[in-house]
């Protein structure tokens, strides 16, 4: 089954579906095992390593100074697919997948995790704590070390954990400008040293999923919902279903985002144009199962992140 992308004979599919509807040794509605490590990069102000199934993602955060810019502080996120995980034909050009991941993470950061942080990222003058004389820019770099699917699922907690662990020495500055030659030292650390942290408003967690055809699910006697399909499983279903993504809040349990691209949406197409938009009980059950599993997964991920943060504090 390792080379399933090279050849997909019908007989192979039939033998597989008579026994089960997924390759991984997990139930259809079971999420992948995960592990959270924190402060794995000593050169960064905050970092984390997320292992989700066989997928591994590392994230590092650094704080830079933007001189003479007031209310210009921001968080900038970038994703890279390292080595063999990059399926782009041009290794020096970011792949489309990396660009989509960067865009998705940037949106979550600015709308959910740390919205409206520009004021908090101001640097203030020595003699006037009300006068802003510069800004911090926070650079978030995410590198996919091993890709076995569920990339967004791994990248979101990697970014979240890194921002939660982020701290840097607070700076103060003079009321002059960079062009003032008399100001040899424009910014300096407070004495005694005071560490600054980033306010994190919400903890989003993403769960990927797909729906397989009802006929196949009935044949194998399983649910048509597959949670966190691996890369091989997505390859297996590339002509029938694409991945969907549901993002929920660890704090409130609310659904923050739901997206499905090139995916099967059971019983929705025929009901979209209907005035009553009624779904059968079995169809509602599929979505209820998805939401329940996403909520459980978010709770487990939150507990793992909190445990990692506690470990960091006790060291």
Shape, per Cα inertia axes: elongated
Secondary structure: number of strands: 14
Query: Helical percent range?
Result: 25-40%
Count of DSSP helices? Answer: 7
The main β sheet shows up as:
8 strands, mixed
Low-confidence stretches: 1-7, 178-184, 266-277
Radius of gyration: 23 Å
Q: Proportion of β residues?
A: 25-35%
**Cα end-to-end separation:** 44 Å
What's the order of the H and E elements?
HEEEEHEEHEEEEEHEHEEHH
Structural class: alpha+beta
Kindly report the average pLDDT value.
81
Describe the model.
Keywords: Cytoplasm, Exonuclease, Exosome, Hydrolase, Nuclease. It is found in: Cytoplasm; Nucleus, Nucleolus. By secondary structure, the chain is an alpha+beta fold. It has helices at 10-19, 96-113, 151-165, 214-220, 231-236, 269-272, 281-314; strands at 34-38, 46-52, 55-67, 74-81, 122-125, 132-146, 167-169, 171-173, 187-189, 195-197, 204-211, 225-227, 244-249, 255-260. The strands form three sheets. Strands 1, 2, 3, 4, 5, 6, 8 and 9 form an eight-stranded mixed β-sheet that branches. The chain has a four-stranded antiparallel β-sheet with strand order 12-11-13-14, sandwiched between helices. It has a two-stranded antiparallel ribbon with strand order 7-10. Strand 2 (46-52) and strand 3 (55-67) form a beta hairpin. Helix 3 runs parallel beside helix 7 (281-314). The chain is elongated, with a radius of gyration of 23 Å.
């Amino acid at each position: 089954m390792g080379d399933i992308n090279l050849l997909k004979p019908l007989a192979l599919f039939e033998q597989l579906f008579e026994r089960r509807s997924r390759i991984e040794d997990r139930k259809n509605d079971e999420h992948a095992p995960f592990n959270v490590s924190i402060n794995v990069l000593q050169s960064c102000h905050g970092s984390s390593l997320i292992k989700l199934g066989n997928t591994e993602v590392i994230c590092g955060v650094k704080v830079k100074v933007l001189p003479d810019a007031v209310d210009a502080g921001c968080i900038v996120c970038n994703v890279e697919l390292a080595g063999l995980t990059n399926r782009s034909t041009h290794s020096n050009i970011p792949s489309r997948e990396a660009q989509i991941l960067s865009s998705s993470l940037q949106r979550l950061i600015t709308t959910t995790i740390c919205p409206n942080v520009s004021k908090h990222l101001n640097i203030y003058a020595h003699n006037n704590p009300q006068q802003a004389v510069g800004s911090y820019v926070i650079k978030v770099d995410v590198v996919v070390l091993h890709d076995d699917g569920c990339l967004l699922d791994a990248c979101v907690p990697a970014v979240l954990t890194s921002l939660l662990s982020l701290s840097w020495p607070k700076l103060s500055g003079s009321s002059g400008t960079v062009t003032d030659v008399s100001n040899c030292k424009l910014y300096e650390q407070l004495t005694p040293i005071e560490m600054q942290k980033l306010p994190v408003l919400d903890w989003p967690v993403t769960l990927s999923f797909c729906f397989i055809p009802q006929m196949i699910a009935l044949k194998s006697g399983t649910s048509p919902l597959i949670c966190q399909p691996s890369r091989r499983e997505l390859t297996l279903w590339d002509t029938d279903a694409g991945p969907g993504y549901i993002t929920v809040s660890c704090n409130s349990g609310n659904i923050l985002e739901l997206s499905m691209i090139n995916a099967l949406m059971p019983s929705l197409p025929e009901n979209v144009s209907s005035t009553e938009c009624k779904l059968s009980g079995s169809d509602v059950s599929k979505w209820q199962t998805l939401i329940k599993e996403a909520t459980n997964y978010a709770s487990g991920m939150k507990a793992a992140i909190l445990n990692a943060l506690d470990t960091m504090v006790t060291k």
